[in-house]
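User: Here's a protein and a ligand (glycine). What would the complex look like?
Assistant: Let me lay out the input and then the predicted complex.
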Amino acid sequence: VERLRVELADRSYDIAIGTGTLDALGDAVRGLSPSPRLALVSNPTVHALYGPRVRDSLTRAGFAVHEVTVPDGEQYKTLLWTEKMLTELLRSRLDRRSVLVALGGGVIGDMAGFAAALYMRGIRFVQVPTTLLAQVDSSVGGKTGVNHPLGKNMIGAFWQPSLVWVDLETLRSLPPRQFRAGMAEVIKYGVIRDEAFFRFLGEHEKDVSALEPEALAHLVRRSCEIKAEVVSRDEREAGLRAILNYGHTIGHAVETATGYGAYLHGEAVAIGMCAEARLAEAVKVAAEKVHERVRRLVELYGLPAEVPEGLEAAALLEAMHLDKKALSGEMRFILPVRVGTVRVNEPVPAEAVQALLSTGSRPPSP
Ligand code: NAD
Ligand code: GLY
């Protein structure tokens, strides 16, 4: 097991990355010296695959394990299901020294982390991420929360985990489309922070897609290092942390305008990264042909690179709260200067955004 550290003063914690390490989780959790009562939160899909192994490991380490399951799906990431979870925690008599273990993807991690933040004004929790997206992104950094009918991730808390336990072997059961979606966030790290990593991803696509252990370990480690560094320097997104949202402004608009469900989050982010790279060139922030490089890597990993045909610019602009009235104003974007470096808060004239979205993100025909 390789350990990285997220430095946050008294809220610092380790990210432990290994292969086949679920059986050792119990001992690691005992290392946090919690009370013997503990909750294991998961969904039926992940529980069927890994629940018994995790439970046994925790039981062997001396814990009385109370299992809580939430149905599988983003539509259950709600206050209602958080409350049901809290009810279970109360029924199980978890105390203030209890630990909550979140076993699953970003949905389980976000919601269980939020429940941990709320229960008795905050108990510790451990992330055991089982999707690529959760291993490289959502389990690290302490953004927890749920969706509200009026907006995604609008209700939540900053609440850091006490440990992130990554077992790379869990990625073997992940549907390929989910794996590819996670790759969008990995590519994002290359664009925002590390050109050499971006090149590595281009050179090792075959190994990565075959889940070759060394390539996978490098990819998850480097992604977590970058996220940990950014979060350590700006936990609450006063500035720097916003770079993690590269590709998300237009990506989020694509998700909203297509009604959620057509695209996985990572797929929409892939489209957004390409579109925003093109925008960076249009407004001359990008000093090189950054769009071409981003698009090529996105496509190499089988991710969509273009705003879907038939999706009207007006619908996207509306999703970005940029209607006709606002078109004289400007918008702020995270734009790449080149692969490896982005600028946050770059003002872009609304017309430039409209022009980009009207022509789609496709290159002009020759
Ligand atoms: P998810 O949690 O819905 O998991 C995707 C699917 O894979 C689910 O059906 C799940 O049951 C299944 N699954 C999970 N692990 C598996 C495995 N090992 N084998 C087989 N199937 C498995 O989706 P996700 O992409 O992991 O996370 C998306 C969520 O993360 C969104 O709600 C998003 O808002 C959130 N998010 C949070 C942050 C953050 O910083 N907190 C960052 C990015 C995304
Ligand atoms: N996913 C963006 C962040 O953690 O800040």
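Summary: The CA atoms of residues 75 and 147 lie 8 Å apart.
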